[in-house]
Design a protein that fits this description.
Helix content: 55-70%
Shape: rod-shaped
Radius of gyration: 36 Å
Low-confidence stretches: none
Largest sheet: 2 strands, parallel
Length: about 200
């Protein structure tokens, strides 16, 4: 890890992902919109006021008419509109919670994949060192005449397999880090390390 590597715990990774996920921000806004629709659906309509002025010729008088109107809907209309908009609100809240849980689960999964890949690195590094040591000893035994050439070749194949496993592990670390960075809202190539 360099100076720009972010080291964080599983809990911090989940909290960061939940705070930075743009889909969650959209879902929160949808919940607020659904909440506003509940208020709108159960509100009485605005009253209306109208005024009219009539002017006639010189021998007639000027007349003014004022009117006030209030539309009263069907008695069950408010209840039904409230029930429908309330169900929409519950659906939006459910979708938001589901997205939060999905984001948290994906973040934990990505964090654990990085943690496993990092811990696997030490095992593979130790395995490569053991394979190199075994090759060196097998070559020394071959030079002394106590080991067959086939044993040297097998030791070389084992060392190459250990080195290939290390290369594959580096790819796994990079992929796990990129997956976690995507969920954290960070650049995919940014350094990230598991602190657990």
């Amino acid at each position: 890890g360099g100076a720009d590597t972010l080291a964080l715990t599983r809990r911090a990774a989940v909290d960061t992902a939940l705070a930075r996920n743009p889909a969650l921000a959209v879902a929160r806004e949808q919940v607020e919109q659904a909440r506003a629709r509940v208020v709108q659906a159960t509100a009485f309509p605005d009253p209306s006021v109208s005024a009219a002025t009539t002017l006639s010729g010189p021998e007639s008088s000027v007349g003014t008419t004022l009117g006030l109107g209030l539309t009263l809907p069907f008695p069950q209309k408010f209840h039904l509109q409230g029930a429908v908009s309330g169900a929409d609100l519950k659906a939006a809240q459910f979708s938001y919670q589901q997205l939060r849980q999905q984001t948290a689960a994906l973040t934990v999964q990505a964090y654990d994949a990085l943690l496993v890949a990092l811990r696997h690195l030490s095992d593979l590094t130790e395995g490569r060192a053991l394979a190199a040591d075994f090759l060196q000893k097998t070559e020394a035994r071959f030079e002394a005449g106590t080991a067959a050439r086939l044993d040297v070749l097998k030791a070389k194949v084992d060392l190459a397999a250990a080195e290939n496993a290390l290369i594959a592990n580096q790819r796994d670390i990079a992929n796990a880090g990129a997956g976690l960075n995507r969920l954290l809202g960070r650049p995919l190539g940014a350094g990230v390390a598991a602190a657990d």
